[in-house]
Amino acid sequence: MAQSTLRVLLVGDVMLDQYWDGTACRISPEAPVPVLSVKGQRARPGGAANVAVNLAALGSPVTLLTPLGDDEAADELVDMVVEQGVTLEAVRQAGYATTRKIRCVCRGQQLLRADFEVPVPQAAVNRLSHRFARLLPEHDIVVLSDYAKGALTECADFIRVAREAGKPVLVDPKGRHMARYAGATLLKPNLAEFTGWVGEPDDEAHFCRLAHALRQRLRLENLLVTRGEAGMSLFTARGVFHQPAQVREVYDVCGAGDTVLAALTHLIALGEAVPEAMRWANAAAGIVVGRSGTAQVTYEEVAASLHVPRSSSPTWLSAAS
């Protein structure tokens, strides 16, 4: 394990990912839907909690600051993340229900997902902001994992305060309001989020122009767009780097974005340049999509996968314009 000495403060929305595994051999007589005969249940940390356990697995000391309900789902999440080496700073809020996602799975394929979620109360958001201010001086890197559940309502203030303190801030965004992420060190939208902000590009050149303009408008040092099968594209003041997707059989894309964020953070904490961190993050994502549900990947697994000839280095495309 390549252990980082830099301490990561991770803030975001967590959820309990639950899986009901079984077989579906008949159609319900009540409605034209399959009947899942449940054979087993399992649970894993989701959302920002998945980012946190991935950071810990890679070798980064991480503190997870998040709102939680005062319920059994929260208790289960606490046990899982602490057991996997995460320092937890939970804002427990009475009357708030921790987000849960139940996936009904048959032969490795999802039949249905049921979500239980309510917005984070403003009282919890206020307590989260106070706790962030207290924890910030003890940490070296800030990571914001936004799932639009309410934990990062004040994310613009988090970014401003952290940057004023000289801390780099990496953000995984969500939603239509891109201005709230202005000033981040690195912003990592997926392609759908990117096009939701700037519109559909006509071609690759237009895509690059839109990305350069967005980076400048939001005063970002780095804009990294994850593009699924098309790989990842990194836009910096120097220009554009592109990382092809690592060719693997895709089993489940659930949580891949969390793994990318964790790997980027860990490699940057180790002192790697952002293009090299992107290469490692791409390899990490290639590993986890071959697994069922949210999963963790170790530094050693990623290092081993990078020795495969098909895993190439980022391609320098062009200078910034």
Explained architecture:
- Helix 7 runs antiparallel to helix 8 and helix 8 packs across helix 9.
- The relative contact order is 0.14.
- The mean pLDDT is 90.
- The chain has 321 residues and is α/β, with parallel strands linked by helices.
- Strand 11 and strand 12 form a beta hairpin.
- 33% of the residues lie in helices and 29% in strands.
- The strands form two sheets. A ten-stranded mixed β-sheet has the order 5-4-1-8-9-10-11-12-13-14, sandwiched between helices.
The low-pLDDT segments are none
Q: Order of strands side by side in the largest beta sheet?
A: 5-4-1-8-9-10-11-12-13-14
Task: Work out the helicity level.
Answer: 25-40%
Query: In angstroms, what is the radius of gyration?
Result: 20 Å
The largest pleated sheet is described as: 10 strands, mixed
Question: Which structural class do the helices and strands define?
Answer: alpha/beta
Query: What is the 3D form?
Result: globular
Distance between the termini: 39 Å
Report the portion of residues in β strands.
25-35%
Figure out the total of helices.
Answer: 9
Oligomeric grouping of the chains: single chain
Number of strands: 14
- Indicate the mean pLDDT: 90
- Can you write the helix and strand succession as a string? EEEHEHEEEHEHEEHHEEEHHHE
